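Re: that chain you flagged

S.,

Sorry for the slow reply, it's been a week of failed gels. I finally had a moment to sit down with the sequence you sent. For the record, here it is as I used it:
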Amino acid sequence: MMIAFAIYFLILGLVCGSFFNVVGLRVPAKQSLIHPPSHCTSCNTRLRKRELVPLFSYLFAKGRCRHCGVSVSPLYPIGEVVTGLLFMLMFVRFGASLELLTALLLASLSIIITVSDLKYMLIPNKILAAFVPLLLISRLLHHDQPLWHYLIGALLGGGMLLLVHLVSRGQMGLGDAKLFFVCGLAIGIPHILVAMLLACLAGTIIGVALQLLHLVKRKQPIPFGLFLALGTLAAYLYGDTLIEGYLNIIT
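Prediction finished late last night. Pasting the structure tokens below so you have them in one place:
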């Protein structure tokens, strides 16, 4: 039964991931989520139902539009697959519990803002504002820590990056600070501190690797929302283990 439910959440994630791609691509561009219906962005041909099956439509079409032959961005299937895997992981980790609601919301937010930040280097206020009440409700329904831990986590997360934004004179986007505020609301303190360290570590390693591969130039801005999402998810899932391991090393 556990395997059946895990597969269900994998499929659910694939379907939701397809929608999250739309949200992440259309909201920053101030486009409707409904109109126009899904279409090829090159030839504007409306896609048929068989062309909207998450992941498989991309694979069967070999990554190209069936009508004009233009390559389809791999961002679409990657977003769907990662969402599916995250949903399945969250179910395996938390099972059929109230905490699963927060886990799925956090995974959903991470995918949407990553798509948006990678495409436009923008984290829209509308997306963050939509998740704040949802995460507040999920935390009211279930919390492992006192509620003030999550409030402090939000203020600390947003405050840290707001300070960086001010000191760097805007080199760190204000959207990152707002995103980390929302992340802190979900994972609380001390996990938001772990998330910050992991995000900076991931950003440094990947940033240096991209420069060495000559994929980006020195001082070229790269979207940091992805790394904040990675750090937050890792801290949320494995923060206690990481903190315990660190304390064992220093004591």
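What I noticed first: The chain has two domains: 1-96, 123-251.

Talk soon,
D.
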